[in-house]
């Protein structure tokens, strides 16, 4: 199978099974099933790490759980500040979901972030949250007035910005994940077996986690801008 065929195969998200509701047929795609697996992993991890919590004489498991919690909330909360604390749980959840989704390919699953529908859904969720945060913090009148700032002539550009941000978020994530796959496949073709294994550490693990951070970082910047 050449590179073009492998790329088409990666872009093609197959239907795993179909749910029949009366005459309605709902196809369940591969990205949805892998998303359920990612959700199950995160829920199980959260359950195992947080059961039996104590306020004194905590064990190693609880200490590790608190360390992970502080690091993750610190990464996201550092950008948002105190005013944006309410949005930290959502952003940490998205960070964990994209991070696990990007590296789950190492275990033989097709990453959900290789499905453009998934990255579009993530981007729309984030932008809806950004605009909702602006309305909640400022009120509808001040939120609408922000579109004519700093001068009324820029209003069309401010409105256009609302629609280009989700496009930028989804295409950045989808493009980087797909680009990493293409580079890895090219390396497997042109260099000996050991070299791709070394680069796999970067593209399949580090780059995947980096893309999760970039997505959440940009979303937190948009929220910070919306609530100021």
UniProtKB/TrEMBL annotation:
GO CC aspect terms: plasma membrane; proton-transporting ATP synthase complex
A Pfam family reported for this protein in Swiss-Prot or TrEMBL: ATP-synt_A
Membrane topology per record: Multi-pass membrane protein
Keyword Membrane found: yes
Cell location: Cell membrane; Membrane
GO molecular function: proton-transporting ATP synthase activity, rotational mechanism
Record's keyword terms, sorted: ATP synthesis, Cell membrane, CF(0), Hydrogen ion transport, Ion transport, Membrane, Transmembrane, Transmembrane helix, Transport
Residues passing through the membrane, by range: 33-53, 87-110, 116-136, 173-195, 201-223
InterPro entries: ATP_syn_F0_a_bact/chloroplast (IPR045082), ATP_synth_F0_asu (IPR000568), F0_ATP_A_sf (IPR035908)
GO terms for biological process, alphabetical: proton motive force-driven plasma membrane ATP synthesis
CDD domains according to UniProt: ATP-synt_Fo_a_6
PANTHER family, per the entry: ATP SYNTHASE SUBUNIT A, CHLOROPLASTIC
Role noted for this protein: Key component of the proton channel; it plays a direct role in the translocation of protons across the membrane.
Family: Belongs to the ATPase A chain family.
Entry protein name: ATP synthase subunit a
Name of the gene encoding the protein in the UniProt record: atpB
């Amino acid at each position: 199978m050449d590179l073009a065929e492998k790329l088409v195969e990666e872009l093609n998200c197959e239907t795993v099974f179909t749910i029949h509701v009366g005459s309605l047929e709902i196809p369940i795609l591969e990205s949805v099933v892998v998303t359920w697996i990612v959700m199950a992993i995160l829920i199980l991890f959260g359950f195992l790490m947080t059961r039996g919590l104590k306020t004194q004489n905590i064990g190693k498991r609880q200490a590790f759980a608190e360390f992970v919690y502080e690091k993750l909330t610190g990464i996201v909360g550092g950008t948002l500040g105190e005013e944006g604390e309410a949005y930290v749980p959502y952003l940490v959840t998205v960070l964990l979901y994209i991070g696990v989704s990007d590296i789950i390919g190492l275990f033989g699953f097709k990453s959900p972030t290789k499905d453009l529908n998934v990255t579009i859904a993530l981007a729309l969720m984030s932008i809806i949250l950004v605009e909702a945060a602006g309305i909640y913090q400022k009120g509808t009148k001040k939120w609408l007035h922000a579109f004519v700032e700093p001068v009324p002539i820029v209003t069309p550009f401010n409105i256009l910005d609302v629609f280009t941000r989700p496009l930028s978020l989804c295409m950045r994530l989808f493009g980087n994940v797909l680009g990493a796959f293409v580079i890895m496949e090219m390396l497997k073709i042109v260099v000996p077996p050991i070299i791709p294994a070394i680069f796999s550490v970067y593209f399949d693990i580090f780059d995947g986690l980096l893309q999760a951070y970039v997505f959440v970082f940009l979303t937190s910047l948009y929220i910070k801008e919306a609530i100021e």
